[in-house]
Amino acid sequence: MPMKPITFILLSVSLSSLSSYGQSLAMSGDLRFTVDSTTKSQLTSALNGFLDQKEKPNKENTFVLKSDLLATSLLLDELKGMEKNAKLKDDHFYKPYLQDITDISNSEFLVQLSYIGMAENTPVLRASFKLIAEKQGDRFYFCSPLKRNTVSWKTKRSNNITFYFKDTLDAASAKSYAKAIDLYDKKLKAPASPIAFYFCDDLPEALQIPGIDYKADYIGKRYDDLSSQEDNQYLELNGGYNAERRFDPHDLWHARLRMVMDAGVINRPVDEGCAYLYGGSWGQSWEFVLSSFKQYAAENPTADWLQLYIDSKNLKDKEKPIKVPYAINALIIRKIEKEKGFAPVMELLACGKRETGDANYFKALEKVSGIRRADFNTAVWSLIKE
Asked: Whose CA is closest to 127, among 88, 78, 72, 91?
């Protein structure tokens, strides 16, 4: 269903005025854009087209500036689903409002838009974005302002990785990141594709530089990162993992796997098992996860691992759980890789999304490891004792 055309709203409009007109505000004559009426009409028409296509795969959006697809893809990912209000079960609650158009060169314009909904006659801001509109001939194309906002940043190359930073490179984190990338990509036989890694001070900066001025999803979050991938290129805007660590090797595993394997065929418990084994969980090492798992096993000597696997039992029921299926798969993957290499692990990873009863998983598991569903409990106890 195509989106409604963008409406225009004065930045200084009062709450009562917004409540009165709702989402049907007409363009006010007092909106003093610095562009002429023809340019404004062409640009807003193109912006409507850009937003109409935002739910498509990003590379299929015909209004994206193709030379800047990677950064714009990240911005488009943040724009997807903006109209929805899950709490109210309304897929068209928030509407896009154009707030500003500023000409920044003869052919480039900085565009600001916000998604606003009305709840009990009160405007609710969902998000606010900035984009650059570039005129080529008689058409407008859009891109993220990432390059504009980081034009003064420095760079450092390490093989296929380009690190971007403002003043001084965090050499230890850069080295650790490059080492993890090398480990994962060798296992996955991934091509040496270009990676752009931005060292941001925190998540607010990681949001700001690609054009995300505000998004309700990120309220109060200090650390996190944003990423995108297109045409075997990878972009990470890193806002830190916590006060001590720059990135999470667990999450990095997931990102690298999806560079070589379609998400639609990945079995999550196997994927998480790899992430546990190679990157730990919730900032804790694999050794910590393994110790916790073995402690649970010692305290539950009659545990039925098959049933616990199917039930997705948590070892810890607090904020940072350790899941039985993930820990078991980490042990299985370690054994398979040691005995047969990583190719059988890839086959197990690609056995399909998790289904009730895990029939697809157990079929693939028997093929690549010889562990049958009927012998699963015995096999897991054996792995624990090794």
From this structure: 78
